[in-house]
Model the fold of this input.
Amino acid sequence: MKHKRLPVSINLALLVLLIGVLSSCATSKPGAAVQKKVQGKTYVIVGASSGFGRGMAEQLGAMKANVVLAARRTELLEEVATKVRAGGGQALVVTTDISQPDQVQRLADAAVQQFGRVDVWVNDAGVGGIGRFWEIPIADYSRMIDVNLKGIVYGSHAAMQIFKKQGTGVLMNLGSVESHVPLAYHAVYASTKGAIKNFDQALNQELRLSGLKNIEVVTIEPWAVDTPFWTHAANYSGGTPRMAAMDPPSKVVNAMVRSSVRPRQELPVGWKARGAVTSHRILPHFTERLSANVVHRYQMKTAPPAPANAGSLHQPEAEGRGVADGVKARIKAENKQRREQKGK
Done:
């Protein structure tokens, strides 16, 4: 008796489901074993004023780590430092624009001077731009590249100088699911995230060939997440910044803390990110087309109107101060209002 072959789409769905089940432990809250390894270690976190960086800093503080907090918004860094200290950790605030190499070097020097070493360096700072490629100003693209790519290079270079002297260290750079699946209306942002993946892969090979086996580079690749990224992104799309099926930031923060003591070279975070990466490996054109259609519907067709703005690219914004930012709830309310208006 001949068995019918399942359609490719069903096979792919089953594969994504299996990946989700197998990867769930990576995003759960780290337990006592991880906490024991974290305690007393020194972390530098660039981008610590909100989002993943803030979430990671506060969790590390509760695990009694030393945390060096870097970002542009000094008052928020001081707020995070208070929480780190309240949790039992130590904190040092160093106001830093990662796009400025002299400021990054000052950060590295301050961390070593205060704590004697750096065990983990996290480059989490990043800025986005949403809209048709030809409608976003060149100045905004230049700033995105300065922060998302050049900044990662500057931070990684400073970290490597420290790690080589110590003989050990973990460098963690924030990529994205867009390191694999570039999204429409995110062209330059996606290109910087793809570059981070390639940079980290090459760096890992250089470390291997140089015999520096105790220095490791980790690329974290989240799905779209409910953080202040969407409030801070430059937006020329004509609609409020949004994306489908956002993850909570706790998933990514948990994965980052765990990966800091159990490094893996590349970590798509959560079942959606893993599923998208796997789908792209199997059916790249289908995955890119489907992803683009989803973004087009959410961002260009159904988003409520919003004025063009450069977000926090050139100057820090007062808004977007927490780990989460209520974007998922806002999108849900917008969708509900849209359905109600259509029903009238």
Summary: Strands lie at 42-46, 66-71, 90-95, 120-123, 129-130, 169-174, 215-222, 234-235, 266-269. DSSP finds twelve helices and nine strands in the chain. The longest helix spans residues 138-166. Residues 235 and 309 are 5 Å apart (CA to CA).
